[in-house]
Amino acid sequence: MRILLNITPSELKETSGDMSYLRDLLALRVGDLQYETLNDTPTPLRTVRKVFWHLGRWWVPQPLRRSLFIASQRNFVSPSMMAGKMADVFHTHLLLPWNVATLRRRYPIAFSSAGISPPWYYRYIGRGLYEDVVAYYNLVGKMVDVIIVWTNSCARRLMEECPRIQAVVRVVPPFYRTGSSDQPSFPKTNPITRFLFVGKEPIRKGLAETVEAFLHVARVKRDVELIVVSRDVPSQLVEVMSKCSRIRLYNRFVPQEEFNRLMVESDVIVLPTHAETLGAVLIEGMARGCATLTCDYEPLNEIAPDGVVGFTVPRGDVQALAEKMLILSTERDLLTQMQKNAWHHYQETFSAEAVAPKLLSGVYLCRRFGGRYLPTHALRLGRTC
Question: Torsion angle of alpha carbons 87, 88, 94, 97, nearest 10°?
Answer without folding.
Answer: 70
